[in-house]
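User: Can you predict the 3D structure for this chain?
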Amino acid sequence: MTMITRFFGPPTWEAWMGDAVGQVLPLAVGVTLSPLPVIVVVLMLGTRRARSNGLSFLLGWLVGLAAVGTAAILVAGGADASGDGEPAAWVSWVKLALGALVLLLAAKTWRGRARGDEPAPMPSWMSALDTFTAVKSAGLGVLLAAVNPKNLVLTLSAGVAVAQTGIPAGRQAAALAVFVVVGALGPGVPVVISLVLGERAARALNDLQTWMARHNSAIMTVVMLVIGAKLVGDGIAGAFG
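Assistant: Here is the predicted structure, written as structure tokens:
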């Protein structure tokens, strides 16, 4: 970046904004490809409170991602994640650590996968989804977005990535908003399909839920391997480059 600045002058806020969005997009895709929230929301859409619970879960998911991302930006910004137009040295080490953690989660997910014709293990609380109220659905959305280890690591990584650019607070919020919206596409698309198509969407959504439940471990392993490798690579490049 120093050489670029020397020849072309300091980067504009627009360039930094583009850099922030470019940093968070792969992480947001990793969040939105999570099978579990998609499975949960599809099951909710098959209950008697389908629309209210589906929308409440999606709202909770958005709130959870936004809350963790905002906290990460505030903490990283307070720790001077950016200085003189360059990311602070500690940011690279944080990325390296987060990347290693994601790779460990990928290995754990793959080791816990279903074998052969064995059905994919699903949390026991899913059987109670038909009794959930809108409030419980929203709370579940927050928990799965903010507390799930994989989503937590990816969202923290996104917050640090935004903070390291040093762009103004309003543009940091815009970059985080991009992350949150893209990260919500997974559970959001089934909700929109259900709202638009109504009962006609039931079969397609059930097929989607069955497929994602069957391939849950494989999907998550691949996603985490890619994201983990990216974070480790970025961390190594910043720490030793």
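Residues 2 and 38 are 43 Å apart (CA to CA). The longest strand covers residues 82-83.
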